[in-house]
Each structure stands twice: as C-alpha cells, then as structure tokens.
Amino acid sequence: MFRKSERLWGKAPLMSDYDAVIIGGGLHGLATAYYLARNHGMKNIAVIEKRHIGFGGAGRNTAIVRANQRTKENLSLYKEGLELWPKLTAELDYNLMFYNCGNLNLAHSEAALSAMRMQVASARFFGIESHIADPKECKELVPALNISEDITYPIFGGMYHPPGGIVRHDAVVWGLAKGAAKLGVHIHQGTEVLGINVEKGKITSVETDQGTISTPRVLNAAGGYSASLSYKMLGIHLPVSVLTIQAMVTQPLKPLLDHVVSSGAYHCYANQTLKGEIATGAHMDPWPNYTTQTTAHYIKHQAEALSEFLPCLRGVRFMRIWGGLADMTPDMAPIMDGNDPIEGYYTDCGWGYFGFKSAAVTGKYMAQFMADGECPDMLRPFTLRRFEQHRLMGEMAGTVVYSPWN
Amino acid sequence: MNRLNRLPTLRVNPSEKLTFNYIGSSCQGVKGDTVATALYANDVRIFGRSLKYHRPRGLYSMDGECSNCCVEIDGIPNVRAETTLLRNGMNIRPQNVRKSPDTDIMGFMDKMDWAMPAGFYYRCMHKPAKLWPFFLKQIRKAAGLGRISPDFHMKGRYDEIYPNADVCVIGGGAAGMTAALTAAGQGLRVILLESRPWLGGFFDYRTAEYTPSQEGISRTLCERARELSEQLENAPNVRTFVHTAMIGAYSNNLITAFQTGNKSDAFDERYMEIRAKSVVVATGCIERPLLFDNNDRPGVMQVGCAHRLAQTYGLLPGENAVFSVGHDLGLEAVLDLYDMGVSVACVADVREDGQDPHLLEKLTERKIPFMRGWTAHTAHGSKTLEKVTLSTLSGAQHREFDCDTLVASAGLTPVTGPLTLAQAKLAYDNHTGFFLPEKLPEKMYAAGRMLGLQSPLSIETSGKLAGLSAAADCGTSLEHEIKQTREELRNLAGPVRGSKFVTAPVRGQKSFICFDEDTTVKNIDQAIQAGFDAPELIKRFTAAGTGPGQGGIPGHNLPLLVSQWHTDSGLAVQPTTVRPPLVPTYLATYAGAKHDMCKRTPAYESQKKAGGVMQRAGVWKRARRFSDDIRCQEEVENVRSNVGILDASTLGKFRIFGPDALRALERVYVGDMSKVSEAKIRYSAMCNEDGCLLDDGVVVRRGENDYYFTTSTGRAGQTVEWIRYHARYENWDFSIVNLTDAFGVINLAGPNARKVLEKLTDADVSNAAFPFAGYREFAIRDTIPVRVMRLGFVGELSFELHVPSSFMQTLWELIEDAGKPLGIRNFGLEAQNLLRMEKGHVIIGSESEQRTTLHDLGLGFLWYRDKPQAKTVGAVALRQTEHQEGRLKLIGFRMEDASSRSPKDGSVIVDSTIRGYVCSARHSFALNEPIGMALAEPQLADTDTRLEIFEDSGDDRLYAKVVPMPFYDPEGEKLRI
C-alpha cells in the first residue's frame, strides 16, 4: 500500500499476429488468457474488448459464488471454482475480497425442500459442505428473516451452504487483467471484432476495427453478444436467448445480513456487500432483447418480495438498479466447445445466471482446451452437440420456459 | 436561534412549534421545517461523521445530494434530513458516530488517509492470507452509515396509483409550471410533479426582480412563482403532485415517482406509475461543488443552501461569511444575506468576467470586497469552520479570512437524470459547461434552467415551447404557435456561459470530490495512474458517486476533472451513468399496497371447515391434508377401502372448437387425436421440441369439431399460448376458451364411489353403462349439469365431476351428505400423492424434469408415430431419442428390508458417483412397506438391480431394489369395477 500506483495493465500496440485471440474482455476471456499464459506458456495472446474490460456481465453481476449445483457434471466444476478464489488472490497478488459468508437458499414448500435435499445430498456426496436447515436455524442464521405463517410463501426450511459467499467482481476483472498483462497478454480495449476468417475449416485470422490479426485460435467469450457473433461471423447458430437481468442495491448499512439469502418462490436473493449495501436481484424480464435497460415492475417486484421475507428492509431505500445481459441456453447450462466444426474456433458462452462464479475455473479448463486442442474431461458434458441430441443437462429441475417469473 | 419571520419567501410558520428529540435531548422546530433546518436552528452544525475518515460533516446542500445530513429517525437509517419534513415527536440520531458527532472517537481515522489510497483494499489485506478474515470484519464494521435492526417494523401506510395523462411535466419551477399551463390550455390532461412540498423552484426563495414584458408593475420572482402556482390551482385539468419525487423513466414515457403524504392524506408515501403521451422535463439545476482543501468542513455550504436557509426557513447560516462562487446566483445570495445582517468578509468569484453589472454595482454599494479570479483554497478549523484561505486560480496569491460560514459553489449543473433514464445521450456543451442532451427521446422535451437559461422570461418561454410541443404530440395542431414561440425564445436571452472551474490549486489530499465515499481529488489522480481511463472505471475504482447520494455531488465534477488531467486528450468528456431511482426510495414505498393474490377454488371454505391444511401451490391455495398426520394414513385408507372426495378444480380446463380444432390438438398432443370419441376420454401428453414431457391430461369430444380437455394445474396458464404458438403459421380456424376458473372439479374416488353418486342422479352410472375411461354428461338432482369422467389416477373406481363453478359448492355439499352414511371424507394432495404413486403415475415436475422425455418416463406408448402430417411438437425428438442410450429412466423401487423406513425425497442413488435420485418415496399402507420412484441412469433400470441410496444427512446408506410398476393393483382391476 505504500508503493506508488503503477498501471495495472499496460497499453500495447495491436500486433498482426497472435497465437490466440480472445474475443471479450470479460471474466471468462481474461481468465482464459491468464491461464493460457500461466499454465501453458503461451505468451502471444490478445484479448479484444469492444468497450472496456468488465463492461458487460463481469461488471454487472452480483458476485455470488457457491458450489451447490444440481448435477454431478456441474458440481465438480463449481467445487474447483469455489476453491480457486483464495488461491487466485494470492497468485495474482490482488485482493479479490472473497467474503466467505455462506449461502442460505430458502424453501417455501415440501416440494422445494425435496429438491433441496437432492442438491444437498449431491453436494455432500462430492464433499461439498451443505445441509438442510429448519426454519429455526434459518432464523438463527439470518435474524431478519420472517419465518411466520402470514406471508405469501411461508418458509419451510432452507439449504445452507457455508463454503459459498461473495467476491468483489471488479477486483476479479482487474486482478486477472493485471495477472495476464504481467505474463505478456495484450489487452486491447475499445477494439471491435468485425469478422473471423476461416480457410479449409481452420481459423486463419480475425478482423478488427484496428486491423487484421492472423491467428490459429479464437475464443468466443463475448457473453451476451457471443451468439450473434457466432452466427454473424461464422454462421454457427447457438441455442441462446439473450435476456436482460437486473440487480439493484440499497443504501449502505452497518452489518445486517451475514449470509447470502435466496428464495426461488419469491424470485429474489439478497446479500450484503462489503460496502454495506443490500444487493438483490433474481428473475428476468421474459422478453429477449439486447438492451441493458431496467424496467419499472422489476424493482417493484423486488421490493414486494423482500418486504415479505426480510421485512425490516422496508425501512431501507433502493439507490441504484442496473441491467445486464444473460445468455440463456434451453437447459441453463453453458456451452463450452471447440474445434467443432471449425478447427481453432472455441466457444465459451451461454452462462446465463452462472457466468461469474464459474469464470476462473472455466478459464483454466478452456485454456487447457485451447492449448492442447483436446477437450478436458471436465468440459465434455457442455458440448454444443448435446442440444441436437436432445440431451439437456439437468441443472434446472423444471422445464425452462422464458415466461414471466422464470 | 432566532427566526427571521417576516420574509415574503418564508415557508415555515414560526409560531407553530414542533417538538422532537435529538440524541436524548428535547428540541423545538417549527411547522414547515425540514429535519435539517430544525437541527440547524438548534445549533447543530456537525450532523454526522463521514464513512472512511470519520470527518465531521454538516449541512451542505438543501436537496439531499449527499450523505452528510443522513440521520436515523425513529429507527430508520439514512433519512435525508434536508428533504424530510419535521414531525412532532421524531426521535433523531446521528449516523456513523461513536459517542456524539462532536466527539467521535473514530476521528483519528482522518489522519490515516496516507494508508488508504484509491483501491488500497485490493492491494493489501490479503497478505498473509490468514489475516484476511480479520480485515474483512473490520471492513464490514466500517462500511455502511446507518444501522437497522433485524426486528425493525416499518410503520405507516403505503399506497400506489397508476394515473394516465396526456402530458406529464417533471419539475414545478417556472418552466415546468408554464409548460403545464400551456398544455392544459390546449384542453389536455396534465400531471405536474414537484419534489419540494411547494411549487416555484428557483423563483420561490428569491426576491430579485422578475421583469415582465408588458406590465409596468414590479414583481419579485417569488411573487411570480406564487402567481403561476395559483393559475395552476385553478386550471381544471391539471393534477399537481408536490412533495413527489420522480424516480424513474422507462420506454414509452412510463414515469415512476413517489409522493410523500401530508397529515390529511391516507398514505405516508405513495408509489406512482404515470403513463403519459408526452413528457416535459424541467428539473432545473443543482449546484456543482467547488473542490478545495477541507471543502467538507461544517460551515462550508452551497449557495442555494445558505440562500434558502435564510429566505425559506428564516435562518441565517452564520454571522461572518466568505463567499467563493462561480455563478450570478451566488452574488444574489451575497446581497440578500448581507441585507439580512450577515457580515460578508469577502466574495471570491472564479469567473474573470461575465458577472451581471447590476449585481456588481450593488456589491460596491455595500462595500463588499469582491475578487475576480479567486477561489476558496483551504478551509480551516478543527471541527467546524473557523477561517478560510482564498487564492488566485493559479495559486500565486493567498489571503486569509476569519469566518464561520463559507458559501462555496463552482457553478450549476443541470438535473438531467430524467432525460438520461429515458435514453437521451448527453454531450459536453462548451458554452454552458453542462452535459446536455444531444437528441431527446421521442415525445420528451426539456425546458428551463437545465438548458443553461438564466433570465426568467427565457425560462418561462422555454417552458411554453415545451408545453406546446408536448401538446402537439397529443394530436393538437400547433405548428404556428410553436414556430412563434421558438422565435420569441430566440429573441430572449440565451443560455449563459458557465464556469468550468473544478478544483482550487491544491494537492487535493483533503479535497473531497465525493463526500459519501470520502473520495478525494488525490484518489482520482491515483486511479488514473493505475490505468483507469474512463470516468466510469474511475467511479468503480474509487467508489466516487456510488454512495447514498449517488452522483449528486461528484456527477459533474468527476468527468470534468478527468478530462483536465487526462493525458489522452482524444478521449471525449463523458459523464458517468445515472441509474434509477433518481431519489433513493423505500422498499416499503416501492412495494406499495401489496395484496397477497392467490386463487381459491369454489370449495375452499368447505375444505377449510373440514380441517384442511391449506397451502400455496402455484397460484392456488389447496388442501394438503386434513389431519395432523403428515402421512395421511386415514385419508389414504379411506379411499382404498371406502370413498373420498378431492377438490381438483385447479386442473386446467379448456374448450377448443372450430373446423381446425382437431388439427391444433394433433399438433400439440402426441397421441392420435382423431380417435377421440364422445363417450370415451383419451389420456395424452404434450411434449416440447426435445420430446420432454410438458403436460398431460384427458381429451373428450363433445360435438362436431368441439373438444374439452384438461391440463395439469401448473400448465393451465400457458396452454392457450402454447397451442397458439405452435399453430401460428397455419391460418387454422379454431378457438380456445380457458374454462379453468369456470368449472370446478370433484374427484369422487374409492370402491364405494358409485354408491354415493347413485344417490344423486337418475343417470345409469353402473359399470356396464358407464365403464372405465367413459365420459358422460348428466344432471345431478335433475338440476346441476355435470361432465363426468371415469379416471384412475388414484387407482380406485373414481368419477371426476366437472361442474360449473357456481354449482360447485352445492354439489360438494350434496356429495358430502350422500356419502355421510358411508363415512366419506376429504383427502388432500399428500394422500393423492401416495395413492397415485402406488399406481406408478407420474406428476410432472415430481417424477419428470426438464430433460426427461416421454420414453424416459415409460410413457412412449402415448406417442402415435403415424401422423407425420400433424407435425406434432416433439415428434422428431421422440423418434430420435427412442432408442438413445445413456438417458435417465424412471424406475420403481422397494426397500431391500421391507421394515426399513422410506428414503427421503431427493436422496441420491450412488455407486462411485451419482447415478440418479429418488423423486418420491413413501410408506405404502396398501403394501405395508416403503415404495418409491426414482430417475436413474439406465444401467440401474433393470428389475432387481440393487440401489444404494445416499441421503442429505450423509448418514447411513439405504438399499433398495428395482421393481416393476405399478406397485398396487398392477392389472387395474380396481378401476374397472
């Protein structure tokens, strides 16, 4: 802290040749660049970002991390992802502010409790700490909770997952950029990709508004824009719907919530950031679009929901709401794929709600994929071809329909 | 403190006293006071302590742009004292203070700034890692200003309204009032929103001369404001909402706001959503803070704050004042305050020229020292202001003055929030120094001081122009008037040149650009050095503008400062994003008068009376069980051995008819719908494009091209959309009517069901006349028309009676009476759950998930493959997945040890990894052992396979074996009696 500030990442001229070009200066792109350089000795890497790094989902999510996913394919990935935060903090020498507060997910019916039991049993089988809490324990964990019967969806219990928490999302963007830049990665902000060139089924170059880059490897990590980019530039159709997701914060308070609290029935989660704000959000407006505009009913819904299960917050004010894009697949699981059908073309998108918590670990495996050309076992289930084979992943129990309150 | 009580601008009534409590002592204010002015009148100068450095903070602005005057009132944190009206009995406490604001023991933090450069927490505290939890705790403790108790109960009444208007005017100053009057003059319905408790804006507190065009009578601005306000009161089609803060603007001119109620109102706060055809934004300006060392010292305040404190509330800000201004409003304030008795040591103006000569004359008349090209440089005083150093803009010369008040302002900044929320893009305007909209969104107009106008006539004329333009949007032809007014405005004084000066020539360690986050000018420099280029990133890195007041204080200065310092001169000066709500808004207010809306079936009361435990299931409230026994043994056994009734009214019920109705059914149902007959029900399913089960139900034909069908409860809402969507390109002629709420459904089930039904109807309901899977329509007691299906969901003889909702209650009672001698009783959802499980019937969402196809569930037989012309949704996938390997399968199981308990729902099936999970498992009373259904990988699907079950508690494993389903009455004999 006594050092004079130095630039976290430098400015480099755009070269005409890179070993790998990563489209998107969000978390997934930066993490992949970082691990390509760190684990695979690749130094000649460009991250191309149209706006500034962290402009998209990376800077708009509410930074909740957890590993209590539903299916075994996801559990092992998220488990490793969760364990990465402290390691990365040390490795990047940048405090990612991992606040290991634990997550409490509320159940408002017998059916929801059964669904949670399955998640808890699955997590525990993989050695991930998680347990079912009765309403009394929920109240002990979060004293502000209303566990009375007189609300729309009375609380039947919850799933408590102590290893989860929140991370400072901006710090992860900046830390990864710093780490990657230190290893020689070039981060080009304000640069737009205009085209991807393919010859004989292989990636040859990328066109940008700052010039053409020859490269044998391209990663599409453009978040909300990845599906349109994939279709426009390569004709590859991804089963992705882009929806606006909104989040908001209240004015800052002294410590009130010691855990992340979430409720499926109320379509609402809330946690207290290290700045003291109550950050909250959840469902999406059901109409696909590419704007990040907020909507009036969303913030109202959020207030209605919190009024019920965290009623003391009625005396607190919302001070800021914002929107971001979520790229949703039909099974709410991501698409991580590569070399199919174009050699050298890799995709990492469709993350929907889960882009933040998975970013670092995905970067690690995508880097391995791009360096070896072989899909690591960890990523195999996430292939794009699962959709044409009707093999949806089971991350969401119910059928996903993009209707109100999904 | 004495009040000046004879001012024409006064908005308080000094004779009406209000009592309140401040840190344990009883204080007095007067009616009309805000909490801030009342505290100020009681000589409170330090209102609270700042976030990071615990610096003393006091009254700075009058509109609550920062957290300086956030206080706790009656247990509610972060209440903006400047905009909250004082009420009798309020209990007021300062925030972020240990002990009292004057003697805060955390004050030493102010000396620690060297240890806390911008983003310091990212660069330290993680080494060594084991100290991080300690630091984390300290960060949490330090963060946040207010405190709320987890048991806090928000009192008060909260309401919501959704008015429509032709024109919505935001801002009740001179421009806004003129716009409203103009639009109303065209016969349009107008809504006017004003955030203060009165109309008038910048005119309201000023006694400077208003220069009328034709009349010779001299009037003050204040008088003019009240004149306009009176006209508005008399305008028949204007609804004026004062004390109403506009908080959001959305597409198609949806404006949100909230109103603070008066004593006489039926609400404390009221949320508003206004849909207007056209919108006029006339929100005026706030002040742009002047940055210098210790610019946050209590005693330093903005021009409007000092001016309004005196004129509106009758309170002099201090005795000895120094002014450092950048706008003529500052000079006007000097004169007024001087005339009221404040001694003015000196007036510094950052402008070298451009001041109104009349104002300068008056300064000279009063012998007030005036220094052009000078600025406040440093404020002195350990807790409150004692002295100020002024300097030339370059810092070459300095002079010191003793004072208790420093009125400081760099200039004005327009309140463009409403415009940017409506997606207007702002660009820097070099003349005014404002960020002004390049292009306004459709049907939105800006008027008044926010455009840089200063002359009262220009302001009103711009309001008139906006009002006419908005009226024209509503269909009035006003081309000529608009042209004329535009011409009129062109001949009046245009926007005034604005000062661009931001920061005094200081190092900036203690010059605060953002009070809420304690961000200094130096912190901005540090962020730029760390490589953060854009104001948006600097905001994130330094937190400037992310506190309770959002961009109110730093919003304009930050981009100006960045552009001055930035090495990369090519970068355009860009403001940071403004986000809703523009004024922080209580959750209680947003929530409004929330009612718990759920649907009740027509037999709800009867079930409740019978002891039904009513629980929410989707949009409905339904009976889960009718006793304390969560296993519902008696309910279940009564159905198996006698007769029970279940209210199944929540089922989706539809009529589809028309020449192409059958085609539509064939499109969405996987079965052969052409075989649906009039006397027989057909059970079928709907799938999605992946062949996964979405819905199931029965279909009957009631006439030519006329069908009646049911869906599961959860799908009722989506069914019409689903069918329409999948027929959208076909131009088919059919209609669908959703009868879900129009019909009630009673399931009369059990071996004695017929005995009950026979008592109520003359129709022949014998097994021969009305066999299993039959459909009949007849009358109950010759009166009540019923549609009856013989179904087998619970596995017994059962009649499902569909009856118009209006007859439901009567029919329910008739059946109860008829069944009484037999011992009929209610059964609820939990009993039904076990009953259907014993039959191996799936409930969608319980035994199926989004990835399970019809085949996976063993329901492939429902799919009729020989109707390719129907293009049935999911048929392609059903063909492709029919023999696909590796898919989860629905299996039935019994425990290895029949005396064991059943595993909990959701337990997983494992070997070396997870292989599946238990969907539902219960103790079967009929079989006297636990049974269950699970989704598991196919290698575990064969009969007699051993299943290892791992529960959420992680304790002992349970073992089961796969058995064929159904468990109960596999031949279905009980259904056919």
Please, could you describe this protein's structure?
The complex is a heterodimer of chains A (406) and B (977). Chain A has an eight-stranded mixed sheet with strand order 5-6-4-14-15-16-13-17, with helices on both faces. Helix content of chain A is 29%, strand content 25%. In chain A, helix 1 packs parallel to helix 5, helix 1 crosses helix 8 and helix 2 (72-92) packs across helix 8. Chain A is built from nine helices and 19 strands. Chain A folds into two domains: 14-61 and 169-239 and 332-388, FAD/NAD(P)-binding domain (3-Layer(bba) Sandwich); 98-163 and 241-328, D-Amino Acid Oxidase, Chain A, domain 2 (2-Layer Sandwich), CATH 3.30.9.10. The N and C termini of chain A lie far apart (45 Å). Chain B contains 24 helices and 52 strands. In chain B, a hairpin with a 5-residue loop joins strand 38 and strand 39 (693-703). In chain B, helix 4 (174-185) packs parallel to helix 6. Chain B is elongated and about 115 Å long. At the A-B interface, helix 2, helix 3, helix 5, helix 7 and strand 17 of A face strand 6, helix 2, helix 3, helix 13 and helix 14 of B. Strand 17 (317-328) of chain A pairs antiparallel with strand 32 of chain B.
